[in-house]
Amino acid sequence: MREIRSYLVRVYRHDADSLAGVVEDVRSSRIVPFQSLAELCLVLSGRKRFARRGVRPRRAAP
């Protein structure tokens, strides 16, 4: 049985014909950018690899 994966997808639409964004693997915090719908499909199908995401410290509230 295959493991179920959870992703956070952020989509940025530049105009009616183009979109871009990032996909984050929730478990590992790895991210991968995409520049088209076809590339997003590659990411979600596992054919494009995720990069390690650096952890940034949170800023203290003023």
Could you describe the 3D structure shown?
With 62 residues, this protein is an alpha+beta fold. It has a domain at 7-45. It is built from 1 helix and 3 strands, in the order βββα. It has one helix at residues 37-45; strands at residues 7-15, 18-25, 31-34. The chain has a 3-stranded antiparallel β-sheet with strand order 1-2-3, with helices on one face. The radius of gyration is 14 Å and the shape is flat.
Q: Alpha-carbon distance between the termini?
A: 48 Å
> Which structural class matches the secondary elements?
alpha+beta
Q: How much strand content do the residues show? A: 25-35%
Question: How many β-strand stretches?
Answer: 3
Strand order of the largest sheet: 1-2-3
Task: Choose one word for the global shape.
Answer: flat
Helix and strand sequence:
EEEH
Describe the main β-sheet briefly: 3 strands, antiparallel
Q: Treating each run of at least 4 consecutive H or I residues as one helix, how many helices? A: 1
Provide mean pLDDT, rounded: 80
Low-confidence stretches: none
Radius of gyration: 14 Å
Helicity, in percent? Answer: 10-25%
List keywords for this structure.
alpha+beta, flat, three-stranded antiparallel beta sheet, 3 strands, 62 residues
